[in-house]
Amino acid sequence: MTVKLDRDGYVSVITLRNPPNNHLGLGTISELADAFDSADSDSRVRAILLRSEGRVFCAGADLVNANPVADPLPPGARSPFYVAAARLYGVRTPVVAAVQGAAVGAGLGLALVADFRIATPESRFVANFVQLGLHPGFGISAVLERVIGRQRAAMMLLTGRRIRGEEAERWGLVDQLVPAESLYDTAMALAQEIAAAAPLAVASTRATLRGDLHALVAAATDHELAEQAVLMRTEDFAEGVRAVTERRPGRFVGR
User: Fold this and answer.
1) d(CA 74, CA 71)
2) What does residue 106 show for φ and ψ, rounded to 5 degrees?
3) How is the beta sheet containing 124-126 ordered, strand by strand?
4) What DSSP element (H or E) covers 177?
């Protein structure tokens, strides 16, 4: 199991445990979705704290060894990986994420699931899809701009630029920046603060604020997958994966 589910009072603690990079594959994302559903259905839970073990929050999908969206699907079929990702957005319980180290690609998407993100100055947020020759996935193309605005989302998505903790806080991608040793306690304190409020009122207010986000992500991931399927057949995608593996800039040719 790569996901651990605990409860501390009214707070469900969901921990991603897939060292060293906490990569997301179909098995792990399904476990996360199941853990979210379990917390959501527990009447004792009023808030969720999402965290991960190790130095990296989540380095995204392992496109080199186990690309979870690479297998061809029958016409009209939805990606099981993205179905599970959309399930995370369907949770009714407020989510606080403690983000240490890197949140890259699908790892950024996982961080965006949360209502609030607590991070450290060393945290970094990266939507590096175009540096891989790929269209963004995990609903990021729809959700990121809702959090930081269209122009800043475009800056991240069209450049693949790395956004460090201080800038992420200025942009509103991070709600609070704390020293690494205080990350868990600060995130837990926020989750407990939410859990201390009237739960029916919190759920009602959150549903209003989130609006159609779950449906938006479901539709966005279908479109993202279609674009990714085309781009994964290009020379640029093969070069992007090689470049990341070899830790060098990509040499793209536009085909």
Assistant:
1) 10
2) -60, -25
3) 102-104, 124-126, 162-164
4) strand 176-177
pLDDT single digits (tens) 60-101: 988 777 677 767 666 666 889 999 999 999 999 999 999 999
Distant-in-sequence, close-in-space partners of 83: CB < 8 Å, separation ≥ 6: 221
| Distance separating alpha carbons of residues 91 and 217, to the nearest angstrom | 13
CA atoms within 13 A on the CB side of 44: 8
- Is the pTM above the cut of 0.70? yes
What SS3 string covers 41-74? CCCCCCEEEEEECCCCCECCCCCCCCCCCCCCCC
| pLDDT confidence tier of residue 108, bands split at 50, 70 and 90 | very high
Side-by-side strand order, sheet with 95-99 = 3-8, 11-16, 47-52, 95-99, 116-119, 176-177
Instruction: For strands 47-52 and 95-99, give the pairing.
Output: parallel
Cβ atoms of 204 and 214 within 8 Å: the answer is no
Task: Kindly report the CATH class assigned to 3-180.
Answer: alpha beta
Asked if 15 and 53 count as a contact pair (C-beta separation under 8 A), the reply is yes
Tokens 């986000």 label which residue? 213
3-state DSSP call for residue 183? Answer: helix
